[in-house]
Design brief:
The protein is of the alpha/beta class. Helices cover 40% and strands 15% of the residues. It has twelve helices and ten strands. It is globular, with a radius of gyration of 19 Å.
Length: 324
Amino acid sequence: METRLLGRSGVAVTRFVLGCGNFGGVGSAPAFFGQGISHDVAFRIMDRAWDLGIRAFDTADAYGGGRSESWIGEWLVTKGNDVRDALVIETKTYNPMAEGEDRGLARARILRQIETSLRRLGVERIGLYLAHEFDAGVRPEETLSAFDELVRAGKVGAVGASNFTGDQLAEAIAVSEREGLVRYELVQNSHSLLEHRDARTILPVCRRHGVSYQGFGPLAGGWLTGKYRRGEDYPSGSRMTQRPEGYRAFADDRVFTALEGLEEEARGHGISMAGLALAWLLAQDEIAAIVLGPGRPEHLEPMCEALELKLDRTQAAGLAELFA
């Protein structure tokens, strides 16, 4: 699988990154800690991802209340040093580890959280460490100074930002340049056929400063897989029955019409809707990598379809027009 360098960091990741956000929970939501993907299924997903050539895993300290990082660490123990050395781990911090605990990007908290992440993962160095959210209550200088310290100490290869706006990224880069601090080399935001506003907002900032971009949520919580149908109830256990925030706006006749168009196009290519949606993302050269979070090992198969299908600019533009 092709790899891409992240900004000017020297850290490279495969075009697809395994998203481990639902290992032992549903993202960072304390109400779901201990639920989500089971330990056994998580191990089978990691095995399949590795076999398919994925060499980067994305997690966060708060995913599953720490379970996601711990399970990746346990999996690495079973695989040995060759796998450990070849795998790029991306982890993030900001959200509380339990209901009522602290959150944010204050220096003391970052320096504390990195140590717990390293212990859970069983590694001495994390390839990429991200601010999981923008923290309006902490000056960027304080956060970036802490990240700078971690990079200089060799505990982190590079740093990035997730869920940032274009203005927030531009401000952080200006601070890094002014203060001589490490800068964000990657932005990781939600991006798909149903959510591509970053093309107008944050991607121009990335282009201007040579910052790489990763898209998570490439299937929009299952909406681009054909899981949700016009006039039908949401399937039990789906994202729309667990954490529907951010996806409710898709329950619209215009979206269902676009999805029906995507299904027709996918049929014409002889692949799944999910495979075509991922192929569209691969055709966007500005997207360095795609974070794909499967619920079962077989959910990685659309990735294989996408890697086989090379959309040209006209085809990609036609798909985008469906969802304009």
